[in-house]
Amino acid sequence: MNRRLIAISSAIISLMTISCTNDAGVVEGDKVAEAEAILEHKLVGNTIDKCKEGTLLLFLEEEAIARIDKGDIEGIKHEMFNGREVTAFEPAVVMPKNETLARELGLHRWYAVSFDKSIPVEKFAKEIAPSRHITAIEYNTAVTLASDFKARPFNASDYAATRATQNDIPYDDVYASYQWNLSNSGDKSIANTARKGADIGVVDAWKLCAGTPDVVVAVIDAAVKYTHPDLAASMWVNEAELNGIPGVDDDGNKYVDDIYGYNFSTDGYSNGQINWMIEGESGHGTHVAGIVAAVNNNGIGVSSVAGGSGNGDGVRIMGCQVFEGTYAASDREISNAIIYAADNGACIAQCSYGYDPSSYSSDNAYINDCPLEYKALQYFTAPENCNHPAIGANLAIFASGNETASNAGYPGALPICISVTAYGPDYLPTGYTNYGRGCNIAAPGGDYSIGAQNSSNASQILSTCINEVAGSDYVWMDGTSMACPHVSGVAALGISYAAKIGRTFSGNEFRDLLLTAVNDINGLMMEGTKPYNGVSDAVVLKNYYKRMGTGALDAWRLFMQIEGTPSVTVTAGERSSVDLSEYFGGSAADLTYRDIEVSDEARETLGIKGDPKMDKGLLVIKCENCGSAKIKISAIAGGGQLGGGNNIGGTEISREISIISRGVSSTNGGWF
After folding, report:
1. Which residue segments constitute the domains of the chain, with CATH numbers given?
2. CA–CA dist 540, 548 (Å, integer)
3. How do residues 153-205 score in pLDDT, each as one tens digit?
4. How many CA atoms lie within 13 A of 9 on its CB side?
5. What is the maximum span of the chain, computed from C-alpha positions, in angstroms?
6. Residue 494, Cα to own-chain centre: how many angstroms?
7. What 3-state class would DSSP assign to 203?
8. Are 399 and 352 in contact (CB under 8 A)?
9. Beta-carbon contacts of residue 392 (< 8 Å; ≥ 6 apart)
10. Beta strands in 23-105 (DSSP E)
11. To the nearest whole percent, how much of the chain has pLDDT over 90?
12. Do the beta carbons of residue 474 and residue 229 sit within 8 Å?
């Protein structure tokens, strides 16, 4: 990016030299052509069709910044705009806490100018482009949410006849039995093709850790209703502002009254206050927040991925509103939200938004088009800004998009981000999900198209919403917008668990653990079709084979990787033989095995019938249930008997092994 700007600057100097030399004799047409040429060289990207009216983002030269720092902002404005009326000229981002890094990234050089919306943006850009103080110009473009905005209200009485079979969720949340995404029993009232075990494997992970309040997830989205009965206790709270003076920046972070987060919609209606009572509000942000951390085990509503066990635990949600009603967020607003999240303690940015995947053909195309947002993401994910001691860098997690495209949308497709694809209760790709290049991991997104005849909504994702908007505190939605917070929630659980057991990782190490904490779904996509939007064979599954990311997210597997406990996968209901030479060495078949310890809890969780045994290095086991648990296998290293006393023999060795039983396993015996 810096090389790009330097190259642009050099070209501009040449153009401006010509302009100064020949100005006296240039006719009007030549001046217009010259202005167009200068803008072309300075323009970062060309998405004029998506830009906000009455605003531009300007990357200023260092000399201009030095003069502004010394108080000469009016002089710079006069020279830059040459008498043109502007309504505002200010830094594009609030100066971050880590000013050293911010300056290294050039964030201090970005300024936003606002002007009369009746003036075409491109016309204004051409007029100011010749200024020597402007190194680059960016149209302040808008992004879209990865959702169809269809919130289908939940009413338990509508599902009395087809109520989903009680699943294994251990909490007393009254609607938990409808949440196949957390525990999928394969109930056909969800979908005729529902598959047992097509979920995120979180129920058994909860036995080890259900989330901790020191892990903060910033929901960069539409408004999060922080008074929602199932979310209020999960909200991040800025205590200084909560207990401070209204209208005053009590904590000095340059944001006033940011108690539960902030509303960054600068052209919106709320002056920084999170607002869900706006015409056109969809409830999208509140739904996403509920998937991550609706309060678990509180006797109402839904369960969530990382909402604790009902004992005041669970991760916290920071509301970073960038969409307000029908108002779409701009680069500037999103960049400020991302920086705010980093500066105020979030270690995960949950981002169910992005650009249409057809907008950019490469990382460089996106970076050149949206440099401010890219720099903000670099700031958020920089190791020196990490907000939790268990990981070495914050995580930015994005929805891949809902355009059925063969690549992820940006910014999620960037290597510094994680991009999430969506599957339904059948463990198969949804018809809407993007897939292929730039996509990293799959999670439940819901699939309206495969819902059972009398209960089609139940194949979607049930979560919290805004009663005043949707007519219910709980609604069904589907989309990669819903898949994304499953990954954010599991990542938050993983950070909580790592801290609990005293493990620490670099940012790359933790990301790698997360992206390999998956179960195989490719074996189901080798052939066949499934319906989408009323077309019975619209989704050709082989097109998605090996293109949904590393596999299907599994919370238990992430916990085991954090521990360092190896996991093997078996198919529920089938007798499986699993090669353990990976864990007992190349001569595993020749060892003498002494014992396989299976606790009563593990036996019940996995539905183990009979006793597992070792046969020439193979673990022979049959699990009737979908679930996850650990067993302990011991063997003798050196001979057929243990040494000691009057014996000459070997030493006992043992390995703890995690068994993951699912409705489908990989074709290569469980190795990933």
Report:
1. 2-141 (no CATH), 152-560 (3.40.50.200), 567-662 (2.60.40)
2. 14
3. 887 766 654 555 568 899 999 999 999 999 999 999 899 999 999 999 999 99
4. 14
5. 110
6. 14
7. helix
8. yes
9. 383, 386, 504, 505, 506, 507, 508, 509, 510
10. 43-44, 51-60, 88-91
11. 74
12. no
Complete edge-to-edge strand list for the sheet that includes strand 474-477: 152-153, 474-477, 461-464
Buried b / exposed e over 524-535, threshold 16 CB at 10 Å, is bbeeeebebeee
Tokens 């969409």 appear where? 323
Amino acid present at 151 = A
338 φ/ψ angles, rounded to the nearest 5 degrees:
-65, -45
Long-range contacts at 10-18 (CB < 8 A, ≥ 24 apart) = 11/41, 12/38, 12/41, 12/42, 12/132, 12/135, 15/41, 16/130, 16/132
d(CA 272, CA 265) in angstroms, rounded, equals: 7
Tokens of residue 431, six digits: 């018809």
CA–CA distance, 514 with 498 (Å, rounded to integer): 12
Q: Residue 29 phi/psi, 5° resolution?
A: -60, -40
CA 238, CA 243: separation in Å to the nearest integer?
Answer: 9
Instruction: Quote the pTM value.
Output: 0.91
Q: CA 197 to CA 302: how far, in whole Å?
A: 19
Q: What is the pLDDT of residues 266-295, one digit of tens each?
A: 765 567 899 999 888 989 999 999 999 999
Which amino acid, one-letter code, is at 377?
Answer: L
Distance from C-alpha of 188 to C-alpha of 175, rounded to nearest angstrom: 17
| CA distances from residue 149 to 146, 320, 599, 644 in whole angstroms, order as listed | 9, 19, 46, 70
Instruction: Give the mean pLDDT of 448-465.
Output: 86
Other C-beta atoms closer than 10 Å to the C-beta of 482 total 30
Backbone angles phi, psi at 274, to 5 degrees: -60, 130
Residue 567 has phi, psi (to 5 degrees) of: -120, 140
At residue 469, what is the residue type? V
Neighbours of 457 (CB within 10 A): 22
For 468-513, write each residue's pLDDT tens digit: 999 999 999 999 999 999 999 999 999 999 999 999 999 999 999 9
Q: Which residues of 629-648 are buried (b: 16+ CB within 10 A; e: fewer)?
A: bbbebebbeeeeebeeeeee
The pLDDT tens digits for 206-217 are 999 999 999 999
